[in-house]
Here is the input.
Amino acid sequence: MVDGINHAIVEFFEKLSSWEHDVVREKGMTLPQMHTLEVLGIHGSMRMKELAEAMGVTTGTLTVLVDRLEDKGCVRRVPHDTDRRSINVELADQGRILFEEHDRLHLRLTEELLAGCSPEDREVLLRCLVSMNAQF
Here is the structure.
C-alpha cells in the first residue's frame, strides 16, 4: 500500500511540476520568480529575511530573485516602517496581476482535478493534505 501511495505522489508531483513549468514559462518567468510572487501575494509585504525563510532559500539567492523581479516591474523594495536597517519587498502592479492570474490558473486546475470526486472524497483529501503539509 505504501509503495502505491509513494508512486502516486511521485507521479502527481511530476505532472504538476510539468504543468507549472509550462504555465510559468509562457509568462517569461522562472518557477522561483513565480513562487516569490505567490508568497508575497498570499502574505503581503515581507522583510527580505522573512521572505527568504518562507521560501526556503538564502537571503543571497533571494536578493538575485528580487533584483530580477524588480527589473521586470513585479516587485519593489520599500523601507521598513520601524526598522531603518530593514527593507520590505512587496508586489508592484505587474506582480499583482501575474500573481492573481497564476492563482486563478491554480484554482481552475484544482476544480478540474476534483470534478470527479465526491464531496466526501474532497473532505478526506483536504484532511490528508493538511496533515501531510504539517509534516514539513
Summary: Residues 14 and 84 are 43 Å apart (CA to CA).
